């Protein structure tokens, strides 16, 4: 039986089906006004769960909908985007039905986000030590002295040289890499249960990127925080992520534990991403198109059909099922790639 025939019982895939997820995104649909009668659907029914402490990578090309998903999880899709359908459950609450005040209390305390361009996140007129400390003071209700002690410790944790002195620095006195470390310190000071890193290091020097991402993953692990790690670079996810989801045109087309995704990618789009990332001959040589696929006419229903080298007629007429190709490994494809 082809994997495409094994239709998953649920699309709400989770790292550990037995445990209650920390965050559970259900059938999330986000639309943007398009100028025409029909709005443009940018997220087309996202289902994704993250377990406590788990690091899930979200990979996709520019415009796939990564930032729209990150912002929607925080309850604020990018304007003028609209939540057309779906739910986001976090620690027993449905985030999308919370009031603005409730969302503010949650953000920074239990849910944090790290975005690129740290300077835009920081107040240019306040010392960075005060900015980090105020996160603890607002959300944890600690004294000013305790908040400053915690802020200093965070500056040590994010490995900023000479942290005592940096407490009194202004953002413009820091390099881009250091400013990003300060933003990470702000994001983690309250020990959030869930951190979203949205392309957090793009724009930084490659070596600094690697150092900061390694630090972010290490700190998230030490704080016991789960993370959604968003990037355009599938290669980076190999270092940090327990599971990886591949987003294409507003749909998760594949999700798998890290090893399965890298060694046995099932969706042709993932394969293309990995081929672009790695020129491993083993990967190139180990996949084949199933017999049934070869016999049919190449061709919708599938978002990827126009770019897929093995597309067939059925691909343009029937939406592929999100099928479990191996335990915990799902792909949305009529003809998932087989590996020898
Ligand atoms: N303000 C807007 N108005 C209309 N459409 C928008 C708007 N912002 C985003 N979109 C649409 O949403 C899609 C997803 O955008 P999003 O910023 O989430 O992508 P992304 O995956 O984060 O890309 P990148 O890697 O470049 O950051 C875009 O292709 C675009 O069509
Ligand atoms: S469903 Fe068809 S077009 Fe889509 S990725 Fe699979 S083979 Fe390609
Ligand atoms: Mg983005």
Characterization of the model:
The structure is a single chain. The chain has helices at 66-73, 100-106, 118-121, 128-140, 144-157, 163-166, 176-188, 206-223, 234-240, 258-263, 268-277, 281-285, 291-295, 313-317, and strands at residues 23-32, 40-50, 55-59, 82-90, 93-94, 111-114, 194-198, 226-231, 243-248, 251-257, 287-288, 322-326, 329-332, 338-339. It is of the alpha/beta class and 340 residues long. The chain has two domains: 3-110 and 190-339, Rossmann fold (3-Layer(aba) Sandwich), CATH 3.40.50.300; 117-189, no CATH class. The strands form three sheets. The chain has an eight-stranded mixed beta sheet with strand order 6-7-8-3-9-10-13-12, with helices on both faces. The protein has a four-stranded antiparallel beta sheet with strand order 2-1-4-5, covered by helices on one side. It has a two-stranded antiparallel sheet with strand order 11-14. Strand 4 (82-90) and strand 5 (93-94) form a beta hairpin. Residues 66-67, 199 line the site of magnesium ion.
